[in-house]
Specification:
Length: 302
């Protein structure tokens, strides 16, 4: 399905998913050279600066009133401040395997929130697809025994679930604004969120610091460039572009593909996945196919 301007939502989401998946190994590289807090702040604030000239090209603009900035602050707290902290701290506390599963529970929260607040009904096929997709994520992680677990799993679980809920809530907010006003400026709102959420990350950076950062490392600068431009600007903008055109559950289901992309990247680097991991990837793809199938648009009868 394409929008009225001929831009394929599937292509936009596909690019966003690939970049989000690539962010995992790139982040791993950057963490060897700097702190999680510095990465989070750079992604948000530098991403916002990059978006400023983009706004001029696409005809967008930053919010012009207090209401617009209030929305940007609320959504930015959820999808920038809380989510980026949850990704780094959840992984540190619970380990990459647990964190990747729980952070990808966002589609379930999104389906619930949009049903409660936006009245978006969830068909039986779409609900089944969400369950199948998440089951595939669990299988993918189970098939990767090399992942190291964290030392404070219980705390990490809570942090990850908070991050997943915050990401879903941010999507709900953007979906609400897009549906409520057909002229809603997705580009301007996204840029404003980067700045608002990024500023609120500064205390996190001040508290944890950036000690040990190798500023002379070309590898660090390359990693940060990718995380800011691709993983932050392109991925977020693409995701919100899709939310303005598709139901929330349908868009969020694509995030199930992110860990599968990360596994494929590792395979390309010579770290071949196990048979269980491959099976999980197939299940994930099947779940996303169910959620995005045209028949999933039909709401169940009451």
């Amino acid at each position: 399905m394409s929008n009225e301007r001929g831009i394929s939502v599937e292509v936009v989401l596909g690019v966003s998913v690939v970049f989000a998946g690539l962010a995992y190994p790139v982040t791993g590289t950057a963490l060897d050279l700097t702190s999680p807090a510095l990465i989070a702040v750079a992604r948000a604030l530098v991403g916002g600066l990059i978006m400023l000239p983009v706004l001029r090209v696409v005809g967008g603009a930053l919010p012009r009133d207090i209401r617009g900035w209030a929305w940007a602050t609320v959504i930015g707290v959820c999808n920038i401040t809380i989510t980026l902290i949850a990704i780094s701290e959840g992984t540190r506390l619970a380990g990459a395997a647990v964190a990747s599963v729980l952070l990808n529970s966002a589609p379930f929260f999104a389906a619930l929130l949009t049903r409660l607040f936006l009245g978006e009904r969830l068909s039986a096929l779409r609900a089944a697809g969400l369950i199948v997709g998440f089951a595939g994520i669990v299988v993918v992680v189970a098939g990767e025994p090399s992942g190291e677990g964290g030392s404070r799993v219980a705390e990490g679980v809570v942090v990850c679930l908070v991050g997943a809920f915050a990401w879903a809530a941010a999507g709900l907010g953007m979906r609400y604004l897009s549906v409520r006003d057909s002229s809603f400026d997705v580009w301007g709102a996204t840029t404003a969120q980067f700045f608002c959420g990024g500023v609120l990350l500064l205390p996190y950076l001040a508290a944890t610091g950036a000690a040990g950062t190798d500023w002379s490392s070309a590898e660090l600068w390359a990693a940060l460039a990718f995380l800011v431009v691709a993983a932050q600007v392109v991925t977020y903008a693409g995701f919100y572009f899709a939310l303005a055109r598709w139901a929330s559950a349908r868009v969020f289901a694509w995030t199930f593909l992110v860990p599968a992309v990360a596994v494929i990247v590792e395979a390309a680097q010579g770290d071949l996945p196990s048979g269980l991991t491959v099976a999980g990837m197939v299940v994930v793809i099947a779940g996303v196919a169910m959620v995005t199938h045209p028949r999933a648009e039909v709401a169940p009868a009451r």
